[in-house]
Amino acid sequence: xxxxxxxxxxxxxxxxxxxRTLLSAYLREGLGLTGTHVGCDTxxxxxxxxxxxxxxxxxxxxxxxxxAGAEVRTIEGMANADGxxxxxxxxxxxxxxxxxxxxxxxxxxxxxxxxxxxxxxxEAEVRHHLEGNICRCTGYHNIVKAVLAAxxxxxxxxxxx
Length: 161
Fold this sequence. Notes:
The structure is a single chain. The protein is of the alpha+beta class. It has five helices and five strands. It has a five-stranded mixed beta sheet with strand order 2-1-5-3-4, sandwiched between helices. A hairpin with a 2-residue loop joins strand 1 and strand 2. Helix 2 crosses helix 5. The chain starts with a strand and ends in an 11-residue tail after the last helix.
């Protein structure tokens, strides 16, 4: 076991980890940040997406030691400084972009990464970007609406499914 140190949600943190410890396990078990969900352990579902140095990463595919010293942002770090929901989180709530909520942290993190790279994506671009995230409840329509709303676009023209 070695001590792995990184900056998570703006705070320098350290926890013991074996060389084989995945970033998802380090965050959940080592740091108690359970908002990062693990749904498949095979990089298929996207529930474990976090940002590492500003890029969306499936944390079940990265060893914690490989991101030592990096800046990591989890769903817990997406809220505003006053504790209120961040823009993407609020849009998911306002536009019913969640049901059971299991995929939501990964969807929010992936959506935030998209909006950082492309502030005004088209509906097709949102759908393409979220292909790596699986939701078994919503059918994606309201998730796409939420992402477009978070980008400040008018969603009134998007037909209901």
